[in-house]
Write a structure and sequence with these properties.
By secondary structure, the chain is α/β, with parallel strands linked by helices. Helices cover 45% and strands 17% of the residues.
């Protein structure tokens, strides 16, 4: 019997996410049930980055496809998940996030128009503080101008492979690079990046919990400076900020 190809493959990179992965998967299940085509048209892949907790076990028990990537680089982990995906469309979300119930409907409708090469759902924070609001006010105008955002990132699987997927040389901003690459691919076809509406992902405030409410203004300028004057030090900074929390 021929297997029906999924419409959307959701890829979740994960490292020691046993605490927060279940709430994401709860939201995924709700969004799958709301999908207008059928729940089975959504494939869920957890790309496990050699977790030392129960991340992989939880994912398997919840019916996810689990693949393993040893390289400690988020781009490599996302690519490993994408390599196992069978869907027409690829979607990527962080393991500490939660999906809006209409996520898959919004992605499907946007990509079905043929007018966009890739899209992002955008986010709303799980909590607010003065520091988070200030960071938000700085970042949102950039997202609007560039038509780039965060949340769930989606594109056609063929286009993802055509641009070579996520950079595995970058320890951070690999998602920004992918969107630039996809925008370049879509431009001759009259396709653009879009910021989707109606299905904002709930973003974790975990980085603010760990590094402080105002760290976007106290730590991020240091990273920008190090990238200019000392790439080795910027790599050490990135490893601490994005990879140093073993949870």
């Amino acid at each position: 019997m021929e297997t029906v190809r999924p419409r959307i493959s959701l890829v979740i990179p994960a490292y020691n996410e046993a605490e927060l992965l279940p709430r994401l998967l709860d939201s995924v299940e709700e969004a799958r049930e709301r999908f207008r085509q059928r729940a089975g048209a959504i494939e869920v892949i957890v790309a496990d980055n050699l977790s030392t907790d129960a991340t992989a076990t939880i994912a398997r028990e919840r019916g996810c496809t689990v693949v393993t990537e040893a390289k400690r680089c988020i781009g490599a982990v996302r690519n490993r998940g994408a390599a196992a995906a069978r869907g027409e469309l690829l979607a990527f979300v962080d393991a500490d996030s939660r999906l809006h119930p209409e996520t898959f409907n919004v992605i499907d409708a946007a990509m079905a128009t043929g007018r966009c090469v890739a899209g992002t759902t955008g986010v709303r924070m799980e909590r607010w503080s003065a520091g988070i609001v200030a960071a938000w006010l700085v970042l949102v105008p950039l997202a609007i101008v560039l038509r780039m955002d965060t949340g769930v990132v989606s594109c056609r699987a063929d286009d993802f492979r055509a641009v070579g997927g996520y950079s595995e040389q970058r320890l951070f901003a690999e998602d920004v690079q992918l969107l630039f690459d996809l925008r370049r691919l879509g431009r001759p076809r009259g396709q653009r990046l879009i910021r989707m509406t109606g299905a904002k992902t709930i973003a974790s405030a975990r980085k603010f919990d760990r590094h402080g409410e105002w760290h976007y203004f106290t730590r991020m300028p240091k990273l920008a400076w190090l990238m200019l004057v000392d790439p080795g030090a910027s790599t050490a900074f990135a490893r601490d900020y994005w990879y140093g929390d073993d949870r």
